[in-house]
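dude i think i finally got it to work??
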Amino acid sequence: MKVELSDRALREMQRIDLSWRARASSPDAFLDELEKLVEWIESTGVIGPVYGAKAKRRVHRLLLEKSGYHLYLARKSEDLIVVVSIWSARRRRGPTL
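look at this
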């Protein structure tokens, strides 16, 4: 199983990482947690529950518990999962997908 980041998710990851690195106590925490979750998805194929019944496409959501971000994922094929968006769980609403 392979996991890729969409262009949008890549931009969001970079923005979040810059913000996270400004926190001197744990500058690598966000990327470390993201990497571990991606490795887990690649080894298990689990992408979490379906998010949003009215969405235009079938999107799933998983939580990065320590950093407080959701990964929104879509299965593109049997062997490929794409991270569509990375969004703060604190926003109390999801991204436009």
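Strands lie at 2-5, 50-51, 59-64, 69-77, 80-88.
im so relieved honestly
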